[in-house]
Design a protein that fits this description.
Keywords: Cell membrane, Hydrolase, Membrane, Metal-binding, Metalloprotease, Protease, Transmembrane, Transmembrane helix, Zinc. The protein has 231 residues and is mainly alpha-helical. The chain has one domain. The chain contains 9 helices and no strands. The protein has helices spanning 5-36, 41-44, 58-71, 94-119, 128-152, 160-168, 173-178, 184-202, 209-227. The longest helix has 32 residues, at 5-36. The model has no long low-confidence stretch (mean pLDDT 87).
């Protein structure tokens, strides 16, 4: 039986806010740290703000989440915001500060996951109907923030993990990795869509993200739940 309109609306209502906060605060954190470290590019562009409209990317924040919501049967939504502009040459210590700017996004997502877990302690004080809806939002927020943090830490430019790797690896390894910046997005698309499709054609599971992201995400979610006392 297919999804009804009510199913879609309810599922969207418990995913939209977690995804929106996760992707916009991730980007705002990049801009804020870059600004504090000497690069005013994002600040001047109005990107050091909690206003989600300043960070919305038509495809990554609207179209992709909607496609994933429908494709997963209303079980999952994911997205990304418009990347914050950073002039790494304007930073006080470009190589070191690039790492700090890159880590700000995933670090913010982990912080949001912890805050979401702590907010689960408040549902006992809410009306029952609202409590269930809020609890689902908080759990989804934990999950999407953890997944976003881990996904972005894949060591491939232009992802945050790629920039961290470029900043800490010695030459010539860092230069070779930085050279993948322009083709990094195409490589990601191949990993996300082409490899799984190819695997289905030849009868081999080539979908590596459940192993690279899924298993660590479940372990980290369980650890945060345990530390915050919500298990």
């Amino acid at each position: 039986m297919g999804l009804t309109l009510n199913d879609i609306v309810h599922t969207a209502s418990v995913w939209v806010l977690p995804v929106l906060f996760a992707v916009t605060l991730h980007e705002a954190a990049h801009g804020f740290i870059a600004w504090r470290l000497g690069d005013p590019t994002a600040y001047r562009a109005g990107r050091v703000t909690f206003n989600p409209l300043r960070h919305v990317d038509p495809f990554g924040t609207v179209i992709l989440p909607a496609m994933l919501l429908l494709a997963s049967g209303g079980k999952f939504m994911f997205g990304f915001a418009k990347p914050v502009p950073v002039n790494f040459r304007a930073l006080g210590h470009p190589r070191r500060d690039m790492v700090l700017v890159a880590l700000a996004g995933p670090g913010t997502n982990i912080l949001l996951a912890v805050v979401s877990a702590l907010l689960l302690h408040t549902i006992q004080y809410m009306p029952p109907a609202f409590a269930q809806w809020s609890a689902t939002n908080f759990v989804n927020s934990m999950w999407i923030n953890i997944v976003l943090a881990l996904f972005n830490m894949i060591p491939l430019p232009p992802l945050d993990g790629g920039r961290v790797a470029v900043g800490v690896l010695p030459q010539p390894f860092s230069s070779k990795l930085a050279g993948l910046e322009r083709s990094g997005f195409l490589i990601l698309l191949a990993i996300l869509f082409v490899l799984p499709w190819l695997g289905r054609q030849i009868g081999v599971n080539l979908d590596i993200l459940p192993w690279v992201i899924g298993e660590p995400a479940r372990a980290l979610m369980s650890a945060i739940a345990s530390v915050t006392g919500v298990q």
